[in-house]
Every structure is written in C-alpha cells, then in structure tokens.
Design goal:
The protein contains eleven helices and twelve strands. It starts with a helix and ends with a strand.
C-alpha cells in the first residue's frame, strides 16, 4: 500500500510539473508558415522544460487574445498595435526578437511591371493603374495592417473587382493568389516556405519601408493574475539567447535566410 501511495504522489507531482511548464503563446500565421517554429519549439522544451503551446492567428487576433488574458505572451509584427497593447496596460513590455521583410509577389509575366517600380508605393500604383488582380489578406493581421498603410502611402484607396480581400492567413492568401495568378504582398519567410507557387514569382523587394520587425510581449499579470508570467520571462530569456540567435540566423530554405535575429 505504501508503494502505491508513493507512486500516486509521484504521478501527481509529475503531472503538476508538466502543467506548470506549459504556456500559451499567440503567434502570427506568417511566423508559423515559415516553419521556424518547428525548429525552435523542441529546443525551447529541451533547454527550459517549457512546452510552448502556439495559438496561430493574425496579429489583430493575437492582440485580442492577449488583452483577454487567454495567452501568456504574444509574438507579433505590427508596431502601432503593439504600442496600443502596452499603452492599455495589457503587456508588461516589448522585446524585439528578429526581422525579415515584406515582398511583392505576382505573375511571372508581370503585366503591371511591378518589378520596374522604384519603390513600394510605385509598385502598388502600377498594380492599381493596371487594375491587375491583387489578393489582400483582409484579416486585421500585421501583414494586412502593413499592406493598408502602404496603399495609403501610395495615395491609393484599393477597391473594385481587381482587389480581393480574402479574410485568411498568409498561406491561404498565397494559395488564392496562386490560383488567380494575382499579385499579393507576403512576408519573405512565408513566401520562401510556400509550396504552391505556380506561376508566381517574387517581383519587388528592398524598399526600407518593407522592413518587418517581430516582437515578443508578455501579458501583464496585473491585468490577468492567472497568466504564467514566470514562464513568459523564462521563454523571453531563451528567445534572446545565443542559442536562439544561432537557430534563427541559420534557418534557411534553398540557401535563403528567412529571419535575422536582432534582440538586444
């Protein structure tokens, strides 16, 4: 009987530890589609014991999950939304982790001559002038927010049959663009890891305005006492470590780097 009781207690303690070391992290679909999570999560668990459960959504939804206290931290890429999250007291702080860039994808024939544009604004103006089919994520994600700000900067209010807002994640939006042979804005990582490219090609990149920073924001335990703030801190310590730097910088597809580590 004594051995049975000891076994039960040991099982209960093991289960308690397992639960204590689980945390929820809301991440963007662009981050998840890149495949980097498959590299990072096993190493995080091995090094820290933390089993990170991902909730894969757009930045707008990730922010809402954080505001509601449904996750312990968020990893997103929309500075304006991140600042509002902090100003509302929903996050403790913002830590930059890595970056890549946005790119314009379109038909290999490039009827709108996007590849000849001098800058991102010019590329979008060419698409609008040609009334060329353009797929927008339309989902309040960081990518969607960035796209809308770029249209605004180009002096264009996109509308009409040529502009298709699909209300979907990056992978689904790329699939739609491939099926329509349409233009689309994507983060570079999602494009490089996308398998259904069809007749699409990367046509324009390099404008500094297309810079795409990812940041980590722990949810504020003063707002939501139930969040696992200690695990969020431990995860952050790992995300800014030399191990994370190496894994992020070394992650490539077909020889191309997807993200650049830039944590302080």
């Amino acid at each position: 009987m004594k051995q049975v009781i000891i076994a039960i207690i040991a099982t209960a303690l093991t289960a308690a530890v397992a639960v204590a070391d689980e945390m929820k992290l809301a991440v963007t679909t662009s981050f998840h589609n890149s495949g980097l999570a498959d590299i990072l999560l096993p190493q995080i668990k091995e090094d820290t014991g933390i089993d990170v459960q991902l909730l894969v959504v757009g930045t707008g939804q990730a922010i809402k999950l954080g505001e509601a206290g449904d996750v312990d931290a968020i990893l997103v890429h929309s500075r304006k939304a991140e600042d509002a999250f902090l100003e509302g007291g929903f996050g403790t702080h913002r830590r930059e982790i890595m970056y890549n860039d946005f790119v314009f994808i379109g038909p290999d024939g490039d009827g709108a001559k996007v590849a000849d544009a001098a800058d991102a604004a010019g590329a979008l103006q060419r698409i609008e002038n040609a009334q060329a089919p353009f797929v927008s994520r339309g989902d309040d994600s960081g990518t969607h927010k960035k796209e809308l700000s770029l249209w605004d900067g180009a002096g264009v209010a996109p509308h009409g049959d040529w502009y298709r807002a699909v209300g979907a994640g990056m992978g689904a939006a790329l699939n739609t663009a491939s099926g329509m042979n349409a233009y689309i804005m994507s983060d570079r990582a999602s494009w490089l890891n996308f398998g259904n490219k069809g007749d699409l090609a990367l046509l324009f990149s390099g404008d500094p305005v297309l810079f795409n920073q990812y940041a980590y924001l722990p949810v504020n335990p003063d707002k939501h006492p139930h969040v696992k703030a200690d695990l969020a801190v431990r995860l952050e310590e790992w995300l800014v470590s030399d191990t994370a730097r190496s894994l992020i910088n070394d992650y490539k597809i077909n020889g191309e780097t997807l993200f650049v580590f830039n944590a302080d």
